[in-house]
Design a protein that fits this description.
This protein is α+β, with helices and mostly antiparallel strands. The chain contains eight helices and eleven strands.
Length: 247
């Protein structure tokens, strides 16, 4: 004789339905969580020139952090003087590697020493592979590289990768007195760099090159001496580095 089917109360039925819905929802949400976690970072820097006072603390911090040889620079600040008395103005333009989206230095490197990291977009130089051929120096449209006279290999700013990998900001950001430099992940919509780019008009260096740079400027004066001369405007750029002319 067969047993009658077990009786399920209304409360028990609703509980089973709720549990099943929770499992289904978790299974549906899991792929989205996985995809979000796998999204690579894209580090960038925003420089608010309204806050820069031209103190060179960033340059000094960079030189100290990397023991940059005398006469060479990984990061520097240009002084831009513009206009004629009494309508004159002086502004400051901090410079560093732009960590380009399409870096020209990578494509010309014959050994693969210069490459762009997939996990965060930072362009780095592997000194063990670099042969000091200077192809990358010629290819960089921003003049950001140099050959270290002690090692014979190419060097440039790498956003202080050794610090970033340990949860710290680059040395120049850490030491900036006016907090003009802001560093963060562009792929994080809640990061400070993302919020600044969403709420401020920004520019980049030499956009016509098509690299495009990942260093953005707020209220920067990019006027070049050569362009100003054609327009009849007085502009003097003091590079504060061995290369007296802006690249």
């Amino acid at each position: 004789m067969s047993q009658p089917p077990p009786q399920v109360s209304r409360r028990g039925f609703l509980k089973k339905v709720a549990n099943g819905s929770a499992v289904a929802a978790a299974a549906t949400a899991a792929p989205a969580v996985t995809l979000a976690a796998e999204k690579p970072k894209r580090y960038a820097m925003v420089i608010d020139t309204r806050r820069c006072i031209g103190c060179h603390a960033c340059s000094v911090a960079c030189k100290t952090e990397f023991e940059v040889p005398l006469g060479e620079t990984r990061s520097w600040v240009e002084y831009v003087e513009k206009g004629e008395f009494p309508n004159v103005r002086r502004s400051f333009l901090p410079r560093l590697c732009n960590q380009c989206e399409k870096p020209q230095c990578v494509s010309v490197c014959p050994t693969g020493a210069t490459y762009k990291r997939e996990e965060d977009g930072i362009v780095v130089v592997d000194s063990n592979l670099c042969i000091g051929c200077k192809y990358c120096l010629q290819a960089c449209p921003y003049g950001m590289r140099f050959i270290n006279p002690k090692t014979g290999t190419a060097e440039k700013c790498d956003f202080c990768l050794h610090r970033v990998e340990n949860g710290l900001v680059p040395a120049c950001v850490n030491t900036c007195q006016g907090r003009a430099r802001i560093f963060g992940d562009l792929n994080d919509s809640q990061s400070e760099v993302s919020r600044l780019l969403a709420t401020n008009a920004t520019t980049v260096l030499r956009p016509e090159i098509g690299t495009p740079p990942m260093v953005f400027y707020i209220d920067a004066d990019h006027t070049d001496e050569r362009d100003a001369a054609r327009q009849g405007i007085y502009v003097r750029v003091e590079t504060n580095r061995r290369q007296l002319k802006r690249v």
